[in-house]
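User: I'm curious whether this sequence folds into something compact or stays loose and floppy. Could you predict its structure so I can see for myself?
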Amino acid sequence: MQAQGLAPQAPLIRHLLFVHDTLQASGWRRVEVLPSRVLAKAVAPAREARAAQGQPLAPAPIEVSEVSAEEFAALERSWQGVAPPGLGRGDGGSRP
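Assistant: Here's the prediction. I'll summarize afterward.
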């Protein structure tokens, strides 16, 4: 999704496009080492777009509860293989 050929909004979202293109070309490991300033500038237009659509800027609160080690292991096993293909980090983990 290169910035060339996009609408006049492209300069406003160039950092977001850069992060997207980096993720697509090099994966999460490369995105993780991008400067925080670039990531912050990428997030800003995404948050503004969500606000313009009337969506909350922050995700809904997450309910946290304590479980035993056995319950945690069972829950962890139930989520194996849920991430879509191509989202792996290369180190065996995956990103939500």
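Summary: Confidence is low (pLDDT under 50) at residues 91-96. The chain is about 45% helix and 0% strand.
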